[in-house]
Amino acid sequence: MTHDTHAGADASGEAPPLDPRRWLALIIVLVAGFMDMLDVTIVNVVIPSIQKDLHADYTQIEWVVAGYVLGFAALLITGGRLGDIYGRKKMFLIGVAGFTIASTLCGVASGPGMLIGARFFQGAMAGLMVPQILAIIHVTFPSEERGKVLGIWGGVLGSASVAGLIVGGVLVDANIADLEWRPIFLVNIPVGIGALIAAWFFVRESKSAAAVKLDPIGVVIAVTGILMLVYPLAEGRALDWPAWTFFLMGGSVVVFGILVAFERYRTRTVGSPLVVLSLFKERAFTAGMLVWTLFWIALGGFFLVWTLYMQLGLGWSPMRAGLTGAAFAVGAAAGSGLAVEVFTPRIGRLTLIGGALLNALGFAAYIFVAHHYGPGIPSWQMIAPLVVTGFGFGLVVAPMIDAILTKVPAKDAGSASGLLGTTQQVGMALGVALVGVLFFGHLADDSDHGVDKVTPALRQELVTAGVPADGVDDIVKGFRACVHDRSAESDPTKVPASCLPSSVPGADKVQPILTEQGQKAVSHNFVKSFDLSLWYGVGILILVALGMFALPREVHARDLDAELEALGEPVARGV
Q1: Could you please report the per-residue DSSP string of 140-155?
Q2: What pTM was estimated for this model as a whole?
Q3: Which tens digits make up the pLDDT trace of 181-194?
Q4: C-alpha distances in angstroms, 211 versus 1, 86, 88, 520?
Q5: How many Cα neighbours within 13 Å face the side chain of 83?
Q6: Non-local CB neighbours of 260 within 8 Å, separated by 6+ positions
C-alpha cells in the first residue's frame, strides 16, 4: 500500500524503485539539518560578543535567542503539512533558501532590532526545512534501512551541538576580517547555496497521497497566544512591569481558550484541525506534554544564563567557554545512545525519571563548584557537573517522545509528534523569558553581595595608594552605588553616571583599583545569580521527574507504518 506519491511515478500510481542516489540525497539533507542545529548552539557562545558589538541590552539578547525558537515553532506547526501538500523537495528548497537569506541578514545586522527580526525569519525557515528532512528520509528509504538512517541523523544532530560550541568560540576568537561574531552566520551562505544546488539535482520530489488540509486560522491564533505570553515576560522586567504586561499575559489565556473552541469547531466541520483535541483525553499524553514543556523551560533558561555566567561573569573568552561547554554535549550524546539501546528497553520510564533526576543532580553539583570556587573557578572543575547534566539530558530527550506517544492512536501519532516538537520550542522560549526575569532581577537587587565580597581588599588597596581614612569611606560608598547602578542597567556596555571617572586629584591612582575591584564584584554577583537560576532549574526538574510517573511503565519505539497498514489508513505526517 503506497501512502506517498513521487515525481516520476508511472500511470498506475505505483512508486518507482528505490532511488540509487538516495544516500547522496541523505548527505544533502543532513548538511541542511547540521546547519540548523549548528546555529541553535553556536549563538549561545557568541551572545556576549553580539551584545558588546551591537550595544544590545539584556532583553534584546533574550530575543536573539527566543526569536529563533518562536519562529521555528510558528512554521513547525504547519511545515510538515505544507510538504505533504505541495511537495517536500519544494518546501525543503524554499526552507534552505530562506535560511541562507536569513543568515545573511543576521551576518550584516546593523543593530539589535535587525538581528532579532532576522533570527525570527531564520527560525521560521528552519521550521519549514526540518520537517521535510525527516519526511524525505521516510519516503526515500525502505523500512529495513530507515533505522540505520535515523541513527545517522541522531549522530549528526549530536555532533552539530558539540561543533556549534567549539566553532562559535573559534570564529569569534579568530575575528576573521575584523568581523567578530558575524562569520557564525555568514558561513551558512556557501553551505546553503551548495545544499540548494545539490538538492535540486539529487533529491527526489514526493507528496502525500492523503495530505491533510492546512489550518491557517488555527496557526494565527496559536502564534498570537504564544507571543502574548512570551513578549511581556521578556520585556516586563526592563519596563518595571507596566499594567499592559499583565493584561497581555492574562489575555493569552483567553486566546488559548479561543483556540480550543475553534479547533473543536473545525474538527466537527472541515476536519484536519491544527491540534487534535482528543489526544488530551489520554492521561499519558496530557501529562507528557506538561512535563515536556517544563523540561524545556528548565533547559532553555539554563543555556542562556550559562554562557552569560562564563563570559560576562567569569570573563572567559568565547573559545574557552565553548570548549568547556563541549563536556555537556559529550554527556548528552552518551546518554541518548544508552537510553535508546540499553536502558529504555529494560527499565522503561525509570530511564526518563532517572534522567531528569540526574540532570537536577548535575545542576546541583554545578551550584556547589560555582559557589565553592567563585569567580576563580577553573574549567576542569566544571567538566564533571556538565557531563552529569548532559547525560541526564540525553536520557530524557532520546526516549521521551516514544513514551508520550505510547498510547496515542496510530492515526493521530503524526499530529501528536508535531505538537510535541512545537511545544519544545515554546518551552525553550518561555524558559529564556522566565530565567531572564529571575537572573537579571537578582543581579540588580542583590548587587551588595559582590560589593561586600571585595570591600576589604578595596579598602586595603586604597589605603596603600595613600587615600586618607575619611576619603576611603566616601570612595567605598560611591563604589557601592556604581556597582548597583551597573547591575541594574539593562545595557551592560553603558557606563552609569555613578561610575564615571572622577576628576579630583589622585583619581588616576584610584580609578584602576576601582575598575579591577568592580569587575570582581560583578563576577561575584553573576556567580550568585547563576546559582539561584540553577536552583530554579533543579526545582523544575524534580517536578518533571514526579510528573513522569504518569507516563506508561514500558516505553517502546512504534512502527507506525505497520500499525497504519493494519488499519488500512494512510500515514499522517506533520502537525
Answers
A1: HS-HHHHHHHHHHHHH
A2: 0.85
A3: 999 999 999 999 99
A4: 16, 9, 12, 60
A5: 35
A6: 277
